[in-house]
Amino acid sequence: MKRKGLAFILTGAVALSLMGCAANPEQSPVKEKNMDKMLEAAGNTEEGAASYADVKAEVEKNYQTYQTSISDENLKVKVEVDAKVEVPEAEQLSVYRVSQKKISQEFLDKVRKTLAQESMWYAGEKVDARTKLKVAQEIQGYKDYMKDAEALGDKVLVEEYREMIAELEAEYEKAPDSVDFTDYSLDNQIQNIKQVYDNEPDNSFYEWLYSLHGDGEFFFGVSDAKDGNYQSLFMQNSEPYGNCLRYVSGKNGYDYGGNRVSTAVVGDDIEGIVPKTEGETPDFSGMMENGENIPCVDNEPLSLSLEEAEGQADALMEQLGLTDYQCHEKGKYAQLVYVLGMEGSDGNDLKYRDIYRFLYLRKLDNVFVDNRAGIKMTDGWQGKDYVKKMWESEVVAIAVNDSGIAGFSYLSPLSVDENVVEKSKIKAFDEIRDTFEQMVVIENASKAEEGEAAGTVSIKVTDVRLVYTRISEKDSFDTGLVVPVWDFEGTIVDEWGMERTGNILSINAIDGSVINRDLGY
Fold this sequence. Notes:
Layout: H1 6-17, H2 35-42, H3 52-62, E1 65-72, E2 77-86, E3 95-100, H4 105-116, E4 122-123, H5 132-152, H6 155-174, E5 191-192, H7 193-199, H8 204-213, E6 217-222, E7 230-238, E8 242-250, E9 273-275, H9 306-319, E10 325-340, E11 348-364, E12 367-368, E13 376-382, E14 385-391, E15 395-401, E16 404-411, E17 414-421, H10 429-443, E18 457-473, E19 476-493, E20 499-508
Parallel strand pairs: 2-18
Antiparallel strand pairs: 1-2, 3-17, 3-19, 4-6, 5-6, 6-7, 7-8, 8-16, 9-10, 10-11, 11-12, 11-15, 13-14, 15-16, 18-19, 19-20
Helix pairs in contact: 5-6, 7-8
């Protein structure tokens, strides 16, 4: 058993938490999802086919607000809709073919020089190297767990811990006493994962990378922090898990979570952040035990205004040539940071820092491409092969504090390859509304079994927006179509009282089919 960091494990949990919806049930008014027929509908030249201008006029005339109440006692769902219906200021809507874009050496160099200037870079995995001390601490931890399992009489768990301890003891014999990461300077070039693993098969970090990404590419570097800034830069080009780049800078320690599998910013736990309310201590208990009273660092202030911070973020986007994106969401957040050598700790501990965070989304035809409500994922057998692939949502996330750019993430970038249908036709909102009112109940029916103590699913829809969304293309995981979609957003309280805010339902504006965000179509 090779050790994986907490960030790696959490990523899997986050990915699993994003899965869940089933395909359209038999009761659905949408019986079939056919890409060819959808494209035919988008390019419909028959008289009477609704254009975007027609639908925009319909919404502005009849749907300044959309209000209704829906209740189904059999499926135990109640829906209240009191939403503003938003359409973009666009001349037209289109359909685009897109693919996953790799992070290039040129872009990596541009980020490195723009954000870190002349900093030297060193092998990031050596900062948290597996020394004898670290392995010994892990061995002791598993011995404590094994004692608890023995006290409970759990023989299976005892045997598992015994095997883990044996593997760790073998690792301890080979582990170095100490590692100075500044002995491992980098040439700043993207590396092939299989090659570095073949050269160092005993390196647990390289083994972990290879087990996930195979013949992919990566770069993972850290600065020496002599200027007081702990900088880390990680990028991956991975066929199974997607492409991303993350830069983090801080005054208190390196960001160990930068080299995650996930390329998502879906759910703030990916970045370790929660919204910051003035005068209140941020609560991270949704991410970890005892997360209510985490203290704030005292050396990373946030006194600049939101407008000043946004100016810095916009300037960075311009410098990096990311001019096809626009800020979609912004606010003040509290972000977890590892603090090196806190008094009374075992060397590292958690505090938080205040940041402004800005999320940028791509715009096509002056319309946001918004896929943040879900991911495309396949995880199962295809013939004789087991296939696991993930294609998450394109987004740029920037963190700013008084020190400047504190974080930059470029996640799941798209290559816009072709305008498949220009001036797409779309369905009238009256039809979309009818589909929503039938499907929102079916898609969110209570999952409680008969006799189980559970309440009614309660849904409040507060926003309806026409946006672009990437959907799957027939027989291809790595290419997709960007199409206009109606997003219905709000809050769901499920039958067990758990609350979730965000996407309620997404409906393809061209053919009226319900978008399954987990399957990607």
